[in-house]
Write a structure and sequence with these properties.
- The chain has one domain (51-219).
- The model is unreliable at 208-220 (pLDDT under 50).
- The chain is mainly α and 220 residues long.
- The N and C termini lie far apart (48 Å).
- Helix content is 73%, strand content 0%.
Length: 220
């Protein structure tokens, strides 16, 4: 399943081209870049020396967190919460560096992955809260960010316990349960591609282009 997951990232730049997105469309560009970066990352991962893989894995977690957080940073309007995201992100980076340089782990940086999952779920839930409170004339499933959020939740939620426990599992258990996380990752990439389609289908739903939909949020 490793190769199908790796090549599934190419769906995103293909969707960018297929739906005729433009460079000024920040979300399609971000998702296409995300697909290309992680396709390349996974292609070269097993070519790296084993003693460097823990640093590669840690950077993978940090890069993934940065892409996902950037997307919700663009869409969350309240400045106070944006400041909290910045603070949480800085603390997460510091912890990630400390963890990788002081901890020996067999397979994955499980604790940072767990923290990444919790932080991103908080950002997603707050985005849903903000959307439901201030957007009254748009069905949320017609907004492209909904499908990005669902993809992230399926991917991180579906692999959360597996990644938390992976350093304590046997090789047979990893092979048995690992395919489930690969399926969740492929679903995530398909939903990201669908969000590019929704971005082009419903341009009126681009929150960034319609700040009037969020009146006086910073006064609340």
């Amino acid at each position: 399943m490793y190769l199908p997951v790796t090549y599934s990232y190419l769906i995103l730049p293909l969707a960018f081209l297929l739906f005729r997105s433009k460079l000024k469309d920040r979300i399609p560009v971000t998702l296409a870049l995300y697909g290309l970066v992680f396709f390349g990352y996974l292609m070269v991962y097993y070519e790296t020396p084993k003693d460097l893989r823990k640093y590669i894995q840690a950077f993978y977690t940090l890069l993934e967190y940065s892409f996902f957080t950037y997307i919700f940073w663009l869409h969350i309007q309240k400045k106070v919460f944006k400041i909290l995201i910045l603070i949480a992100s800085v603390l997460f980076i510091i912890f990630q560096i400390f963890f990788v340089t002081t901890t020996t782990f067999k397979r994955l940086d499980s604790i940072p992955i767990g923290i990444e999952t919790i932080l991103l779920f908080i950002y997603i839930f707050y985005f849903f809260y903000e959307f439901s409170k201030y957007i009254k004339d748009i069905y949320i499933y017609n907004h492209y960010t909904f499908w990005i959020a669902v993809g992230i939740m399926i991917y991180l939620g579906g692999s959360f316990f597996f990644y938390i426990l992976i350093n304590n599992l046997t090789p047979d258990e990893i092979n048995r349960f690992g395919n489930m996380t690969f399926v969740a990752e492929i679903i995530k990439n398909l939903l990201f591609a669908f969000s590019i389609y929704m971005y082009k289908k419903h341009p009126v739903n681009h929150i960034l282009n319609h700040p009037k939909n969020f009146p006086n949020l910073d006064m609340i």
